[in-house]
Amino acid sequence: MFVIDLFNTLSKTNMKTGWFILTVVLLLTTLSGTYVYAQQNCLNGNFYMIGNASGGGRAIYPVYMNGSSLTVSVSQPVPGGNNSSLAIADPDGAGNTFWSSTYNPIAITKYSGGAWQTVWTDTSGSTIPLANAAGNGPYLYYHSGKGFSWPNRIVRFDGTQAITIWQDTTLYSNVADIAVDDSGNVYFFTGTTPYDVTDLKIMSPSGNILATLPLSFSFDAVWTYGAFFDNNILWLPFGSSNLNFPSQVVPITITPTLASIGTPVNIPAYTIGSGPNGPLYLTFVDAASCGHAAFPFLSTGLSGTDFSHPAIGPNPAAEQISISWKEVQHRKMTLTDMTGHVLFAGESEADRYVINTEMLPPGIFLLGVQEGHLVSYTKVCKQ
Q: Were both Cys, which of 207, 221, 327, 348 would link to 174 (CB 3.0–4.6 Å)?
């Protein structure tokens, strides 16, 4: 006897078009039984996690978060095949669905018609995996962090081809996922060591860094995975071996000057079967949502706008900080403390600007540089 759980039969309003979209439940029948697959639930508090399946391979589990409580629906998961990541997107115009990737071969996969289909395969001979998937509407990205002989890399998939839009070998992009807002901007974490996460970077769909926001405090990078947005909050899950947030999902609030870490929510432990060595526990490797996220201080699109990142020094500073650019343009500068209090504000039409820091107490400050709608923040130290 098969038990059918008709969960998440929902409706939503598309605010961009005003159309009313009724989500439907698809019943997927296989030789081994009947699966229930609900079209992706984009309402607040709903997301999905991919983890191990009781019969081997992967499975995708609906998750609901209500305040400080998190519940995983383990009874009727969607088959996850042997995929290693999870995103919800619509890059080919066929409607929101699950997207993922495989390591061998390096390929992009899509869940369609009740089965996983390979839609693109890397034939370049590259060994850099498409390890971490993230999407929002027409935007779909894959990310690999610096490790072994790999660079940091972010690839955008437009439904037919994969294009590398960002690559770096100096930083450590050490959190195993990225998140995407409604405009297609990519949010990813970086640090100066393989283990410490200190900053959140925001990048346009064309690969331009729009902002670098310091975290309210740094955290351990071990077993961090599955970044996703829900109602303008960036959520980041952590595995059981993380030193700061073991088996928790953490909210991060984004402002123009700071990425502030909030109160974590516990991820319950679930038993999904048994093996020769005892209970088989559910372990997650990625998470995804189709939740809303938009930030007015960012203004981007696929065309993108180049941000001319300045040279800043000395840092640490004693008496002054010099900011210089390769070209002349109108810019605004702010210097704030770590609570967001503005200590200095100025404007420049030149290619160099100097801020006097003699009267500042020793400590860490945020230097903001704005060009048009784009802004970048840099931590500076006063000795």
A: 221
